[in-house]
Every structure is written in structure tokens, then in C-alpha cells.
Automatic annotation (TrEMBL):
Origin superkingdom: Bacteria
Native source species: Streptomyces thermospinosisporus
Name of the protein in question: Sugar ABC transporter substrate-binding protein
Record's keyword terms, sorted: Signal
Lineage: Bacteria, Bacillati, Actinomycetota, Actinomycetes, Kitasatosporales
Keyword Signal: yes
Length: 456
């Protein structure tokens, strides 16, 4: 993922795009959370509170610290809070935190602003890390426009369609190997009510540029639409953007979950797990929870690529990755932590200690050669890897783009723009306004952003 030459030169603070909404956990802070900089034998790590990170925190002392003597002071916060804290600390180059969890949205932007350490020198020296084993789309997405690497993935994901195999079979229906959105809509109508309280499909409707706008933007892409054309003309009022948005809104209103306008990743995951929906289009990361030990739907779910219309693929690309703050006084120790946390042996450690369904996958080729992981993730492992490989951040639609990104537009302003547009779309899902009204307002918002780039 690279920035473009026509991009505005102004330094802007950006917060990370998000492909999933993580279920909130209690925030917790290590010794470094109070603001002290890590010492020579310690580092301060600021990270999101998702389950995989919580596993990491639990495993660090007995593994990494024991092996290296480096103490890790964790500050663990909910997504919105951690993004705010990271943007403040890194933008000011305060140096309070050595390492932070960043995404493939913000790493190219932070790198351009001079807030991150390049990792190339560390990767070159640390041959055991084996950068060639990192899935190519992840390496590319974490490489900035200067050609240097600024992040290492902790886990990666794309998006796909999850469906109840048993429900479709009972209804005499068959899921196509590579479904179109029109086929998905037809199936949703037929399985709506197949079981008491079951809806046809769950789609995010919750406001948020990383919530409803993530899946909706992939639908826009494959329907032939785009937020901006190659000349930075806002295109939210185009026929293709309208068609995709109307399709999405109609589908979730007619055959989607109750309270769709307030449903995000967490709500859809719960609905799918509890048998309240027959299909769900969302992050590939959701499969691990559906197939986890004790899940009521374990073994009942089928997985197929993200539905398409005019494109060959439409799955998104996302990763929570590690970045080292440029102002860190402990970059060498910071790299040692990253090398361990994103290394091959860490995945085996998680599998043995926390269970193979909890392995932070989607980043290394070698993960898919681990027999225990393949057995545990047999239903979705290959579909996930194929979805990541097929993702095209620089060419996700049918026309050239001025900035990279599949479920987001890779510019700093998208955090604000996407959030405001999402509020309009969510309002349409709730029935408070028409899609035409929502997109008319959204077009004006996008035009205001486009003006900055058209003039540069």
C-alpha cells in the first residue's frame, strides 16, 4: 500500500482503518502505562485489546522476557482509545511508547510523516525472522512510498461469506463456489425464517468508517463504483455507487438482522454463533470464533470468497501490525519483541498454550503447513489465505484509483469522511432517510475532501 504523488503534502494525524470491531475487554496497563519511557532492559508497548493481543500479554513474561531479559510494559486499550493515544504519542514523537499496534491504513501515512523507524535493517540482520515467509500482500501493504518496510503483521485478514451449510441443505439450496451478490440476495430471501428467529443474512449497519463502510465499500467496488476517480472527482453520487448502496441497504432491511443500524462485527458474530442468521459477510477473522471449541455452530459453517459482481474478487485486506516509533530510545529491543511476536515460533507457542484456533494467522506461509493448525482451521484456512492473496489494494475495482485501499481510501482525511458518510448510510438502514438523500449529503462531504487533492 503506497501513497500517491498527488496526495496533499500536509502532515495530518490519522487513526487506523479497521476491518473488524473487536469485542471490548477490560483495559489494562503495565508499568509503562503511566508515561515512563522503557529502560535499557525494558520497552513500552501500546496495543489494542483484542483477544489475540491479550493472549500475547499473558505469554510474554514466561517466554520472551525469560529468553531475552527484556521486560515488556503493556498498555492495552479499546480500539478507539488506543488509536487516539497512538496518534497523539507518535505525532508528537513523545517517545513514551516504543512499539504500537498499527494497521495497513496508517503505517504508510505515519511513515511519510516521519513517525516510524524503517525495519529493513533489522529484517536484514535477523535472518531467522524470515521476511520471505510473510505473505506478500502483507509486506506490500506495510511498505511506504519510499520503498521501505515500516511494519510487521501480527495477524492478517480479508473478508468472505460465511453460511450455515446445514440450513441451506435442509432447504434444498446450494451455495455457489464463487457467488455473486445477486445470488446471495436470492439465497437470503429463501433462508429467511428457515429456523425460528433466523434471518437470511447479517451485514454491518453500525455507524463507523471501519464498521458499515468496510463491507459496503467492497460492495461498491465490485458493483463498479469508487469513492474518487483517478482525478480526485468525488463519485458517491454515481449510478454505480448508488446501485451498490441501495442493494446493500435493501438486503439488510429486508432479510437482515433486527436492529441492523446498530449492528457491527461483534453483533453479527454473536448472531451467527447463536443461530440467528443463516449467512454473514465479514472479516475472515470471525471464522476462528465460529469454529472454536464450545461454539454452537462449530462444523456447521461453510466459507466462500467475498461475493462479486463486476470484479474477479472483492475481499478486503487488513492487518494489525507492529510499528516502532521513530523517537524510541530502545529500537533494538523493540525489534526483538516484534521479531518474537510476529515470528514462526510464537504461533506454535499460542497453539500449544491457548489452542490452535487462537493462532494469529493470516500473515505467514508456514502457518498453513502446521498440521495442528490445518486440522483445527480446516474449514476456513485455505479460503482465508486465498482471499488475502487475491486482495488488490491498489486496484480493487473497475477503474483507476488516486489512492490505495479496498475497504477504505488511503488518505488521512478518510477517518473523518468515512465516519460522517457512515452515519448517513446507517440512517438509511434505519429507515430515517432514503439512500438518495444519504448519498447526496455524502457527495458534498467527499467533494470537500477532493478539493484539497485536486489543487495539489
Amino acid at each position: 500500500m503506497r501513497t500517491q504523488s498527488r496526495r496533499s503534502p500536509r502532515t495530518l494525524i490519522a487513526v487506523a482503518a479497521i476491518g473488524t470491531l473487536i469485542t471490548p475487554l477490560a483495559a489494562c496497563s503495565g508499568a509503562g502505562g503511566s508515561g515512563s519511557s522503557g529502560g535499557g532492559d525494558s520497552i513500552n508497548v501500546l496495543m489494542v485489546n483484542n483477544p489475540q493481543m491479550v493472549d500475547l500479554q499473558k505469554l510474554t513474561a514466561a517466554s520472551f522476557t525469560k529468553e531475552t531479559g527484556i521486560k515488556v510494559n503493556f498498555t492495552v486499550l479499546p480500539e478507539n482509545d488506543v488509536r487516539d493515544k497512538i496518534s497523539q504519542d507518535f505525532a508528537n514523537q513523545a517517545g513514551q511508547y516504543d512499539v504500537a499496534t498499527l494497521s495497513n491504513y496508517e503505517i504508510p501515512i505515519y511513515a511519510k510523516n516521519g513517525w516510524l523507524h524503517s525495519l529493513d535493517e533489522y529484517v536484514e540482520k535477523d535472518t531467522a525472522f524470515d521476511q520471505d515467509d510473510i505473505l506478500p500482500p502483507m509486506t506490500k501493504a506495510l511498505t511506504a512510498e519510499d520503498g521501505k518496510l515500516y511494519g510487521e503483521p501480527f495477524y492478517g485478514e480479508s473478508s468472505f461469506l460465511m453460511y450455515r451449510k446445514d440450513v441451506l441443505e435442509k432447504e434444498g439450496l446450494k451455495m455457489p463456489a464463487r457467488p455473486t451478490w445477486k445470488q446471495v440476495a436470492e439465497l437470503a430471501a429463501k433462508v429467511d425464517g428457515a429456523e425460528p428467529g433466523m434471518k437470511g443474512i447479517c451485514l454491518r449497519g453500525l455507524p463507523g468508517w471501519g464498521e458499515v463502510m468496510a463491507p459496503l465499500t467492497t460492495v461498491v467496488n465490485t458493483f463498479g463504483g469508487t469513492w474518487f476517480d483517478k482525478d480526485w472527482k468525488a463519485r458517491l453520487d454515481s449510478k454505480e455507487f448508488k446501485e451498490a448502496t441501495q442493494f446493500y441497504v435493501d438486503l439488510v432491511r429486508e432479510h437482515g438482522e433486527a436492529g441492523a443500524a446498530q449492528s457491527g462485527y461483534a453483533e453479527c458474530l454473536n448472531n451467527m454463533t447463536q443461530g440467528k442468521t443463516a449467512m454473514w459477510y465479514d472479516a475472515t477473522a470471525g471464522a476462528g470464533s465460529l469454529e472454536a471449541k464450545g461454539s454452537p455452530v462449530k462444523g456447521k459453517i461453510g466459507y466462500v470468497p467475498a461475493p462479486v459482481e463486476k470484479t474477479d474478487s472483492s475481499g478486503w485486506l487488513y492487518t494489525w501490525a507492529w510499528g516502532i516509533q521513530k523517537a524510541s530510545k530502545n529500537p533494538e529491543n523493540a525489534w526483538k519483541f516484534i521479531s518474537w511476536a510476529s515470528g514462526k515460533e510464537y504461533e506454535k507457542l499460542v497453539g500449544e498454550k491457548a489452542g490452535w484456533s487462537n493462532v494469529p494467522a493470516g500473515k505467514r506461509t508456514s502457518t498453513y503447513d502446521i498440521p495442528e493448525y490445518r486440522k483445527e482451521a480446516a474449514a476456513f484456512a485455505d479460503v482465508t489465505r486465498d482471499a488475502i492473496a487475491a486482495a488488490k489494494p491498489e486496484d480493487p475495482g473497475v477503474q483507476p484509483r488516486p489512492a490505495p485501499g479496498i475497504q477504505f481510501v488511503g488518505i488521512p482525511e478518510f477517518t473523518d469522511l468515512g465516519t460522517k458518510v457512515s452515519q448517513e448510510i446507517s440512517s438509511a438502514i434505519a429507515g430515517r432517510q432514503s439512500v438518495d438523500s444519504a448519498l447526496k449529503k455524502s457527495q458534498k462531504l467527499a467533494e470537500a475532501v477532493a478539493e484539497k487533492y485536486e489543487a495539489s
